[in-house]
Specification:
Layout lengths: L1 E6 L6 H10 L3 E4 H11 L1 H10 L4 E2 L2 E2 L1 H9 L2 H28 L4 E5 L14 E6 L2 H12 L3 H9 L4 H7 L2 E4 L5 H21 L1
Helix pairs in contact: 1-9, 2-5, 3-5, 6-7
């Protein structure tokens, strides 16, 4: 099993990079999506979140909007949330990779903003940081999540800087392309070469 870790700040283009890997036959594991699934299905995690962040539950479910408003503006709260969620998400990622491998799968991609900090990067054969110009990221987040410029900038500021990914990842993919299609083609070319090199080692 060859595992490629994809990380980078919100709005940089991680999703496109992972879609490129899916085109090449990879099992795609989006840690953010898995986290949202676990909010609905993992009672232990939800109970821990409610205990730490009083009042974020409504009708027995975590109010994601209310929770995000708390953590995005407070680094200490975001760290506390990550301590609770990373453990649960890590177990689920491990389970899905094991199942895929048992079915004969040979390539997987883990997409996580906190790939390095959560320890997921240690599971990967290589890690790839996706970066993009700041203004492009702000515009994408505003459009994608229907946010004001201020809130989009706040999300970016709550995450690691571009230099962090350059210092901690094995490779960097710069999303400086005019269209998503162009960037995806670049990703397919890049990952195809990485996979070929690995198969010859």
């Amino acid at each position: 099993m060859f595992i490629i870790g994809i990380t980078g700040g919100t709005g940089a283009g991680k999703t496109t990079a992972v879609q490129a890997l899916e085109t090449l036959g990879a099992l795609a594991l989006d840690c953010d999506e898995i986290y949202h699934e676990m909010l609905l299905s993992n009672n232990e995690m939800s109970t821990e979140i409610e205990a730490r962040f009083k009042g974020v539950s409504a009708d027995g479910k975590i109010d994601r909007h209310k929770l995000s408003e708390i953590v995005w503006g407070d680094p200490a709260s975001l760290r506390d949330l990550n301590m609770i969620t990373h453990r649960v998400v890590d177990c689920e990622v491990k389970r899905r990779i094991s199942d895929f491998k048992a079915q004969g799968g040979k390539l997987a991609a883990i997409d996580a903003i906190a790939l390095i900090e959560s320890g997921q990067g240690k599971r990967c054969n290589i890690t790839v940081g996706v970066t993009a110009p700041m203004e492009e990221r702000v515009s994408r987040i505003m459009k994608r999540d229907n946010l004001t410029r201020e809130h989009a900038q706040m999300r970016i500021n709550a995450q690691q800087t571009e230099n962090y990914y350059r210092e901690n990842c094995d490779h960097i993919l710069e999303n400086i392309y005019d269209t998503q299609i162009d960037f995806k083609e670049k990703c397919i070319e890049f990952f195809g070469e990485v996979i070929r090199r690995n198969s010859h080692e």
